[in-house]
Amino acid sequence: MSAYQSDEEQVEALKKWWSENGKAAVAGVVLGLGGIVGWQAWTQHQTSIAEQTSAQYQQLSMAINTGNSESAAKQAELLISKQGKSAYAQFAALNMARQHLEQGDAAAAQSQLAWAIENSSEPAIKQIARLRLARIKLSEGDASGAAKLANEASKDAFAGEFAQLRGDIALANNDKETARKSYQEALDNNVGNAELVQMKLDDLAVAVIN
Q1: Is residue 157 helix, strand or coil?
Q2: How far apart are CA 143 and CA 179, in angstroms?
Q3: Whole-angstrom Cα distance, residue 160 to residue 53?
Q4: Spatial contact of 154 and 127, defined as CB atoms under 8 Å apart
Q5: H-helix or E-strand spanning residue 120
Q6: pLDDT in tens, 86-131
Q7: Residue 174 · residue 149 · CB < 8 Å
Q8: Distance (Å, whole) CA 84 – CA 66
Q9: Rounded CA separation 97/8 (Å)
Q10: Between the CA of residue 192 and those of 19, 72, 112, 167, 176, what are the distances in Å?
Q11: Over the stretch 41-82, which tens digit does the pLDDT of each residue have?
């Protein structure tokens, strides 16, 4: 508007602009307001879902902590079926896998962990589920299945844990040299339970001397 030299010219320019663009401007404002209202409604809806999901997960945790396995199973099934892509559902699968394992149902535990690996969008959850599933497979005598999962793991903050796992797999296969190298790799990558890994490494050294 600063290009116009007089108030009259500015008024005439406004009239002309309005006649050409007024309807579109009004429509734009209406659509804009509608978009804001729609966005607010969508945000409120998402917040409501998140709160409900959080409450369901809290109920699941309470059921697990109090030993109410039937209630825990129902809550987990509800979370997984209704909010399968949420972190809550994936943590529910991890928790239920632990409960199944404590109850002696390794197959059900493996199923829950496999689901978490397949459906989680969080790399950390995938890695935790993969590590736990591989450990179960190894304990069940499926060293090759455990090795396959270990080899699929990416190099990240869990590198030390998977190196320890590969050491355990090698030891189960009586490959002591690979086990020794894997345990050392675990220590080099700040494995969580370093004392235990060092004990395993020391035991291998003693076995070589003997």
Answers
A1: coil
A2: 13
A3: 33
A4: yes
A5: none
A6: 777 888 888 888 888 888 999 999 999 999 999 888 888 889 999 9
A7: no
A8: 24
A9: 78
A10: 72, 29, 24, 15, 22
A11: 435 544 545 556 666 667 666 766 767 677 777 777 777 776
